[in-house]
């Protein structure tokens, strides 16, 4: 009976996750379409709210469909309290649930990730601080960009 449930549930879960991923891609595409100052200016207004609500909700739903139920204890620091949010160890696909639970902050990511189909569009909507591993000044530039965003007095979302 367990094998039969798996045979039925696995394709249903896969279809749901693909559907959720496409909705996330569509939401990210709409929110960043004709974005003024793409990558240099923070998303504002309906674009930022759309990213926060849609992508956060879709990410939580995807994890629920995969069988994960996340329970939050306590409260994350707000943007004025902590413009930089630290989460560790960040080395797996569980990092996305941290983003969903904290209101879809900006992240620090490899620049190559932005060119990945579907995921790159979603990642771009989070307005990441892109790190180029080929650029010798990348570390200095990344620190400068994180500092600039942290000192923006709430114009940029938290950086994780």
TrEMBL record:
The keyword Transmembrane applies. Its main location: membrane. One of its GO terms (molecular function) is lysophosphatidic acid acyltransferase activity. Signal peptide: none annotated. The chain crosses the membrane at residues 12-34. It holds the Pfam family Acyltransferase. This is PCAT2 acyltransferase. It comes from Thryothorus ludovicianus (Carolina wren). The gene is Lpcat2.
């Amino acid at each position: 009976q367990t094998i039969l449930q798996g045979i039925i549930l696995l394709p249903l879960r896969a279809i749901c996750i693909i559907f959720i991923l496409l909705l996330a891609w569509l939401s990210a595409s709409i929110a960043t379409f004709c974005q003024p100052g793409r990558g240099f200016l923070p998303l504002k207004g309906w674009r930022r709210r759309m990213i926060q609500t849609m992508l956060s909700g879709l990410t939580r739903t995807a994890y629920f469909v995969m069988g994960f139920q996340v329970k939050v204890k306590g409260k994350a620091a707000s943007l004025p309290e902590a413009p930089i949010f630290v989460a560790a160890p960040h080395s797996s696909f569980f990092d996305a649930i941290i983003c969903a639970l904290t209101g879809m902050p900006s992240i620090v990511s490899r620049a190559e990730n932005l060119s990945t189909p579907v995921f790159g569009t979603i990642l771009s909507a989070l307005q990441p601080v892109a790190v180029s591993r080929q650029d010798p000044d990348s570390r200095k530039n990344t620190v400068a960009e994180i500092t600039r965003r942290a000192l923006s007095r709430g114009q940029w979302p938290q950086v994780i």
